[in-house]
Amino acid sequence: MIHSSFKKLALCSFVSLFASQAYAHTGVRDQVDEGKPSFNGFTIGHGCSGSEGAAYAEQYPVLGQSAVFPLLDNVVWRKNGAKTIGGDGGNVIEAGTTLKLGVTGFAGLSSAFRTSQEIVDRLGNVHALHWSKGAMEPKLNTVTPFKITAPLIADNCVKSLKVRIGVINWCDLGRNAATDAKGPYLQPKDAFGDTVPRVTGFDNGGIQRNVPGASVYTKMPAGNGDNNRADWWFPVLEGGSKLYNDVDLLQKDTPATATAAASPAFWTTMTINNSAADIAKCTGTPVDVSVEPLGVDFDTYLTARNTQPFTKGSINF
Ligand SMILES: [Cu+2]
Question: Is the overall model pTM greater than 0.85, yes or no?
Answer without folding.
Answer: yes
